[in-house]
UniProtKB/TrEMBL annotation, chain A:
SUPFAM superfamilies in alphabetical order: Folate-binding domain
InterPro entries: SoxG (IPR007375), TrmE/GcvT-like (IPR027266)
Domain of life where this protein originates: Bacteria
Species of provenance: Rhodobacter viridis
Membrane-crossing segments per the record: none
Name of the featured protein: Heterotetrameric sarcosine oxidase gamma subunit
High-level lineage: Bacteria, Pseudomonadati, Pseudomonadota, Alphaproteobacteria, Rhodobacterales
From TrEMBL, chain B:
Domain of life: Bacteria
Database matches in Gene3D superfamilies: Folate-binding superfamily
GO BP field: tetrahydrofolate metabolic process
Listed name of the protein: Heterotetrameric sarcosine oxidase delta subunit
Molecular function via GO: sarcosine oxidase activity
Amino acid sequence: MSEAVSALKGESHVGFATVTEAGVTGMITLRADLAATATRIALAGQGLKLPGAREIVAGDKGRFTGWMSPDELLVICAYEDAPAVAAGLAKSLHLEHALVTNVSDARARFTISGAKADQVLTKLCPVDFATLKAGEMRRTRAAQVAAAIWRSGPEELSLVCFRSVAGYVMGILEVSSRQGGELF
Amino acid sequence: MLTLTCPCCGVTVEETELAPGGEAHLKRFGPGSTDAEFETYMFARKNPKGVHFERWRHAYGCGKWFLAARCTVSWEVFGTYPAQTTEPPAELIAKIKEKRPGWEGWK
């Protein structure tokens, strides 16, 4: 087997906040009727919960389910588990009008941590971070590319974007988090 | 800066997260229509000074299309509503009529 490598191999920069490429992460796109009982059962079978609109909820084994749009969810799990979780979801939804795809290798995940982590993203995203609650999934843009952001811990934000733009996102995060660039 | 609330995901976003889709509530004239009808459908667009109904797509968010009513002069947003409608909701029309008494209607 070839070794799985993340987009930037865990590159990290320390400024007034620490920005890190979070390494390989299992991500699965699920498109289905989110109101259907079958969807809820399929998620429960993998230890996942169904999030409400714009929520990200924790399930078992450190897995998360994020709400991406009225018919789309993003499942986040361990990289090694992703193929099995995707297969499990696809199996239980095979009679439904649904799509399950393992997108782990098509995405990159970053963490921005520190007491002033919000300010790194305030400069890049048209989002009022003062009103971004814990457990809220916010899809937006980071400078010129699409991204999804949520609070993944105290003083820590996570950002996912397409792998093809990982270098660009690391660049803007690094510049935005440089020492002396704090907003307040 | 134009700020709209996406009715699909409920988040209030500003213009740069959205993609404009032009005038809303167009009636399509396809095969079988007259040349004049097709030309009107294809090219003629309202350009009002005042109330305008528009299509927008929440491009950087949930990716869904929705419709919005706003004033092209003051940029006041009267409301947004799902795209799965053939005409603006009655309460939105009432609200606009209250705010713009001289408004000639959406058609």
